[in-house]
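Give me a protein, keeping tokens residue-aligned:
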Amino acid sequence: VSPDRPRLRKKVHLSDLINGGALEPAMSLFPRRKKFSHRVATLLPDGRVEVDGVAFSSPSEAASAIAGKRTNGWAFFLTDQASRRSLRIVRHDYVDAMAVDVEDDEPDDDGDEDEG
């Protein structure tokens, strides 16, 4: 991107990642922290996240329901347990590939990053 042309800024939603092929509908999302490992979520085709039969409009709403406190779902959920690939990384890679700046309206939840 040239310095005289601003990059497109937009908020990236899970539905954008599905439509862009970065995520698959009906895939499982796994909590990063072991104490929540029994609470697997499902990514719905419209970008909502289902936990225990309840559909949430954002990964953070779903993560907060699991954790019992406000939680950044982009960091909380892993798309792959073996590689520990989080939704945050998937979103970052998508943003890089699309050359858009993301509006990150959710604070980082660094405490969840290193807990296993």
The CA atoms of residues 9 and 101 lie 5 Å apart. The chain has five helices and eight strands.
